[in-house]
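Let us work through a complete example step by step.
Step 1: write down the sequence.
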Amino acid sequence: MNKKISLGAALALMLVITAVTFSITMIFSRQMFSTTITNISQREAMYDKLSEIDSYVRRNYYGTIDEDNLNNYLAAGYIAGLSDRYATYYTAADYTKKQQENAGKFTGIGIRASRSESGFIQVNEVYPDSPASEAGIKVGDLIIKVNEIDVTAETYDSAISEIGGKAGTKVSMTVRSDNKDREISEITRRVVVTPTVYSKMIGNAGYIKIVDFNENTYDQFKKAVENLIGNNKAESLIFDLRNNTGGLVDPAIKMLDMLLPEGTIATAVYHDGSTEVLGVSDANCIEKPMAVLTNENTASAAELFTQALRDFSVAKSVGSTTYGKGVMQITHSLKDGSAIRITVAQYNPPKSPNYDGIGIKPDYEVALTEEQQKNLDQLNETNDPQLMKALEITRSTPASSQPVVETIGDSGSSDAESITESEEPATEETTTEE
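Step 2: predict the structure and record it as tokens.
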């Protein structure tokens, strides 16, 4: 039976709907207005307090105020007040250096060094195509003098700083090699590309160590994978991410795209609840058994790399539980060339829950002794239990199988912190990090 309502009833209903809509709008607007007023009041209070301090100091301070230094500390204090453990303020000089790091470049002679037992500078790595390489400096050499500084335990930090400098400038040093000293009168500093990917064959397995994620990492990784599979016919791949504290998001996602089948690689959830897809993999992938080595210092982009491979069931992880950094930062440049870095989102792997503050427990827990952890760089396939386990499972288990959780020994723990752009900084530039 059809029912009709009168014109008066229809008008009354419309008025009721209008009144309800107006009320809801007013409530929402009032809440927004109250929030805005509160924020404005809080900001005014902050500015008033700062103005009061500044006025008093300028009237009474017995000294000279360095305005640039003061402005830097004001900005740094604001960022510190956020209580964001990953937030940072960069001065213009610091930001230029940070940009170089993100670009995978630095200015110097091209070595990685540490303090020897005798207090000298011990060369642990010589970067290819670097001034140090051209000067004949080798791994294991000791630098005992830099310019006029005799290197000792007390002067070590000053000597290290003396090695660095602007491109085109020169440094002299005395190098001890095989107990023989030789003087190098001039080494000209220049921009050097930082290696972040190291690869080799271990039997039929391709081993790739990734130490960082910067703008050069994807190209180095792609070259390493293509060489291991194409030229050396690697039957499996092992990715060593131990002590990799992360870096930039984009290189990690591009690297995962090479390895994974079609699907979402990662998403970010921002403070307003909105979600962004950070990367999607196409159908092209590498179908070989894979394993990932992790430890308590594996963090950020390195954790995303690890968990994405696990979520797609193409790799198993071996080692100890990772650091647990599942939040994302943006580095934003300011007008004067300085920059701020703040946490802007929580990022999630393809399928698993976020692991911030928790870490990623490996599929196979394999502990290292304290001595093995200390000398991790010197371990190999004959004395590295974690690497040996990775070789074992990639030989015996197809990449697509689901891993069996296994524990071997006691997993160690660490309180080590993890953190992880070279032109002049551009205004309004942002860089996404993890």
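Step 3: interpret the result. The radius of gyration is 28 Å.
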